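User: My collaborator sent over this chain with a note saying "see what the structure looks like." That's all I know about it. Can you take a look?
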Amino acid sequence: MTRILGIDPGSLATGYGIIDIEGNHATHVIHGTIRLKEKDIAEKLKSLFRQLSNVIDTHQPDESAIEKVFMHKNADSALKLGQARGCAITACAELDIPIFEYTANQVKQATVGKGHAAKQQVQHMIRVLLCLNEEPQADAADALAIALCHGHSREGMLRISGVKGIARGRLQ
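Assistant: Without extra context I'll predict from the sequence alone. Here is the result:
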């Protein structure tokens, strides 16, 4: 069994979701949203790092997956997203957790079956796939979808390559 942390980074809200996966069977562990209310960017990033590190310390994931940066129309928003993403990657790297990256289209394709699915479709499919009682909030649903995407992708990579595991973001 492998425990996977999915992260949907944001400068105001960062979603996280943890699943356990064995073969093609995924089990929900926890999900949530880290809301950043601080006004100063340095304080926001410090808060994100601390809160995400606490989630990692508490739940001990084996691997992590994060959404790749996509182009924003607003350069300032893209910069802030990149800073939050870097902070999340650093929280995982600090504890030597392998980090994998997936595009939004890869995540949607893996969970909904089409790369341009709406957020509501992702929320619904996450509820169904993980047998949740209710649909998770959008950021947390995206994080769980990222974790599921990685879980299913890693199983395929392992089967195709015939290797024993994954370390530091690479097959071994």
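A starting point for your reply to your collaborator: The longest strand covers residues 25-35.
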